[in-house]
Amino acid sequence: MEWIDIDKWERKEPFKIYFGTDFPYIILGANIDVTNLYRYAKENHLSFYFAMVFAANQIANRITNFRYRFADGKPFLIDYNRAVLTHIQRGSDAFVLIETERTDDIKEFCRRTAEKARKPVENRGFGVLPGQNDTIIYSVIPWVNFTVLIRTVAKDGIDCAPKISWGKYVKDGSRLLMPLSLQVHHGLMDGYHVGLYFNQLQEYIDKQGWL
């Protein structure tokens, strides 16, 4: 973690302005083409959900603004976003939180996450949240092809970690399109960075050597 000298920070003014607003969040949803990643996951017997979390978190860690956080009004830069995902275990309709392990190998990531997902989770996994400032919580609503999703805010204006969600994919000819929604703190990034995330994620899914 690296504290930022706010007086030398290029985001000094927008950070101060948006920090004091009632609802300082950018929320944007758009379709992405997940055809290549879905095919790769199925051919390698991987969970598409876990594979998608892997890809989404890879890009979140490549864009500096997605690693900005603040505490007590002071901004800082984390080293790495840890992925935490919502998961519904078999026989239940209540979600639990699964904290993933860091690895740059998609197969290993999916294997380790699947192992954790099969085990009972104490207190539904909410113990990973208090005091943690380096997580992104990923969620999926696979029953709805939504346009945008607004996630819960722990404390308005203070909750500053990005929130990334996606919904039900649909066929469009030979392609699979899936809605993805970003919820980010405007004091830490702008629409440019949200657009950068969507574009880089799409490029990663399209051009990664999955097969």
Describe this structure in words.
With 211 residues, the protein is α+β, with helices and mostly antiparallel strands. It is 29% helix and 27% strand. It has a domain at 2-78 and 140-207: Chloramphenicol Acetyltransferase. It contains five helices and ten strands. Strands 2, 5, 6, 7, 8, 9 and 10 form a seven-stranded mixed sheet that branches. A three-stranded antiparallel sheet has the order 1-4-3, with no helix packed on it. Helix 3 crosses helix 4 (106-118) and helix 3 (48-62) packs across helix 5 (191-207).
CA distance, first residue to last residue: 36 Å
Helix and strand content put the structural class at: alpha+beta
Shape: globular
Q: How would you sum up the major sheet?
A: 7 strands, mixed
Order of helices and strands: EHEHHEEEEHEEEEH
On the 0 to 100 scale, the average pLDDT is 92
Using DSSP, what is the number of strands?
A: 10
- Indicate the CATH class of the domain at 2-78 and 140-207: Alpha Beta
Write the topology of this structure.
Blueprint (H helix, E strand, L loop, with lengths): L1 E2 L8 H8 L5 E9 L1 H9 L4 H15 L5 E4 L2 E4 L4 E7 L6 E5 L6 H13 L16 E7 L21 E5 L2 E3 L2 E11 L5 H17 L4
Parallel strand pairs: 5-7, 7-8
Antiparallel strand pairs: 1-4, 2-10, 3-4, 5-6, 8-10, 9-10
